[in-house]
Design brief:
The structure is a homodimer. Chain A has 21 helices and 3 strands. Chain A has about 500 residues and is mainly α. Chain A folds into 2 domains: about 1-150, Methane Monooxygenase Hydroxylase, Chain G, domain 1, CATH 1.20.58; about 150-495, Neurolysin, domain 3. The N and C termini of chain A lie far apart (about 65 Å). The mean pLDDT of chain A is about 95. Chains A and B meet through helix 1 and helix 2 of A and helix 1 and helix 2 of B.
Chain lengths: ~500, ~500
Amino acid sequence: MSEKFNQLKEVLGEVSDLHHVTAMLEWDQQVNMPPGGAEARGQQISTISTIAHKKATSQEVGNLLDDLEGQFAEGSDEAALVRVTSREYGKAIRVPSEFVAEQAIVTTKAFEAWIEARKKSDFSIFRPHLEKMVEMKQKYIQYFPPTEHPYDVLLDDYEPGMKTSEVKEIFNNLRPRQVDLIKKIKSAKQVKDDFLHKAYNEKKVWDFSETIISQFGYNFNRGRQDKAAHPFQTTFSVNDTRITNRFEEGSPLSTLFSAMHEAGHAMYEQGSNPAYERTPLAGGTSLAVHESQSRMWENLVGRSLPFWEHFLPKLKKSFPSQLDGLSVKSFYNAINKVEPSLIRVNADEATYNLHVMLRLEMEIGMIEGKFAIKDLPQIWNEKMNDYLGIVPPNDAQGVLQDIHWSSGLMGYFSTYALGNLVSAQLWEKINADITDLDEQIRAGKFDALLGWLREKIHVFGHKYDPQDLVQKVTGSKIDAAAYVRYLTRKYSAIYEL
Amino acid sequence: MSEKFNQLKEVLGEVSDLHHVTAMLEWDQQVNMPPGGAEARGQQISTISTIAHKKATSQEVGNLLDDLEGQFAEGSDEAALVRVTSREYGKAIRVPSEFVAEQAIVTTKAFEAWIEARKKSDFSIFRPHLEKMVEMKQKYIQYFPPTEHPYDVLLDDYEPGMKTSEVKEIFNNLRPRQVDLIKKIKSAKQVKDDFLHKAYNEKKVWDFSETIISQFGYNFNRGRQDKAAHPFQTTFSVNDTRITNRFEEGSPLSTLFSAMHEAGHAMYEQGSNPAYERTPLAGGTSLAVHESQSRMWENLVGRSLPFWEHFLPKLKKSFPSQLDGLSVKSFYNAINKVEPSLIRVNADEATYNLHVMLRLEMEIGMIEGKFAIKDLPQIWNEKMNDYLGIVPPNDAQGVLQDIHWSSGLMGYFSTYALGNLVSAQLWEKINADITDLDEQIRAGKFDALLGWLREKIHVFGHKYDPQDLVQKVTGSKIDAAAYVRYLTRKYSAIYEL
């Protein structure tokens, strides 16, 4: 068997190289590429992707997987590799290459239309493309055996094994509690955050962000941070996982939180077992677990009081005039200010998940055919009013704000909220295991925390499915209770509820 | 035939994409990659190179070429495409994929070792890698039918059709004249250049370099300049051709000349006929012709009196204290100062070719097995003493200075000197066609010059072989006479010989 296993690994290694090369081409496109390079770059990415798809769905891989199935001890890395590869292969071969090619064309056009629609804040420009996209997704679902809910097929691509009904149940449990908390906060005394919106020197903020994430344990010998239009994390190998960031005049310190967020993703990737390199076991197990890492470093660490007890004195040294005389409690309150807002990516922790729930409901409605695409802006605005008590003044700040649908990403959004929930579940367990974590953070020490995450989460890569991993580490599946406890405790203190 | 021709172009397009992707991976390796990324990057480059090699040497391509040979009118682009592709195919099918893959891995490791060796000025770090590299080159040569000299095989990869004996003859003709000129200069009154070695602000020099090359016509919408250990130019498409540069404290203004040099390469690539994209006809026809472009912009333009009559007043505005009261003639003399020196890329025009001849002899000696690699530093130093009368104080400034051998580039060096010769041949023709070129340069206008180069050289890409192109444009093959005339005239004026 070991010869066939090595043959399989050989092909998977090439496929992995091709995926990482595509990631490199896309990273350069966002970070460096001069405008003229776009057309040829699209062609190059298409060439590499096509070769990767052909290799990954070849008869050779199918035969090797058939031969290897059930040949390795349960729980072994080998068995996990065969299981994960078989699942991906089984999904990939169901989708005809003509569909993949058509999807690519639909997506390219949809993305261009979305850019224009958002610029002009005119949903009608995007509408026919979104209609086509939903049709494509419905067609995609038909390639798979019937599931409990058709949306399950889409969700499974990002959160293997997760069902729509499970997500709905988790969210139904969470929603009233978050809505109730926001109501209480609304009628409490508001916090001041004007000093966050003063002018800050870009280079100093950037350097400070790198000081923080270096101290977290993000290894710059195995990564780097570059400027791009949007913050993101990408992986070229376990030893080269990069992040991007941006600087916004109106919200200068958000660069710090974006760096912590993306470094959270990157440290997960940097901590993956090196033995899994060039196999489907490398990297993070799902988007929700990935997001649990990024949100933990950004919020549970980076928006905590002990963290700023350590870092605020240093930040004051870089920005004495902006932060003069400020207490750490005032700074902490300000960076945790709750305010229902229009844009998901800028939302605070108390309101963020409601943005996600809204999108999940919209996607399910679209896939079920319950929502006509033409009615989407109206439905969006009604839901925003229901959930957050505000209505977007235009579609650019409403239904057109996210890149996902234009890029063919449906089934993705709920993982953002699930990630928040998992981060809190892990946090309770971590604090039970590392009883002086607050003091460590107050001293600027993160090695025990990172060590815990490496040992319990990162090193396993894709070996365990997300629900199994969360169960194994925390003793329960993904669940809202810990997150509700976390939010309630945090905001009760800040808003004196 | 048109259907088969399109089938061929389809495959060649994919191969071209893969080559450009490899160039992107290598560029990132030199410009951005964190140290940890090296191993995986080597693997990725190897995977892409192997796929490219397999596609380019497939039976399908062989059959299509057989069918298409002689089917197109002589002189047509189609006939050129079939001819150039057939030649490359004929060479490529001789080299096994396993060799290509191994070469990629050897090269990545050799490059990392060279970086460290040069940093520590310790040849012993690089030595085993260079030994392996030479072994690989000797093995490579064995895949080809016997040639007049084994080194011909390596030379032909960079200068199609050129033989070692021809290069030796050109160089034998040139060497005594250059040595004689240097002797005369040595006994003449020396020029002052102390102001070139003062402290200059790096960012201002960098910005000035970009002002110059923008004015030349290098298009930053279709390229960019980045910092790297070594200046080089690379192409990802006709619309994305990038350059790198560096800043050296001891020789701060050399950044300007490196930018002009690399922009000369890049403008050649930017001027290639867009219809040749994704075919072997795209880009420059040979390294010597490529170098004729870079050296022309760097030296015949960038180290000329009219050029600095235009730019010196501007440079003085950026660096008033360093250049205060300096006449343009003094500046011109200083940047053309002849002084036997250690580093090829910083060598003046009178001594540069001697550095190249030294390397050619070293390479031939290595390939013939006449020189043991362990003796290389000593041989290098002896030859430096023979040719230039100086001996490097360490290996970093001696045998370790060039990137080429670490990158698997052997057979390459002589094209630098040939490029100098071609630049002078072209320059005589250009000045016959554009009779007021000096006045144009004095006014900072380069569009007629760039237009001439585009029309006579750039647009043809790889359509004509180098010797044929030089013949077509100048009326004779590559020849040292024009360069000797140019050097003699220039230095007789500067040194009042």
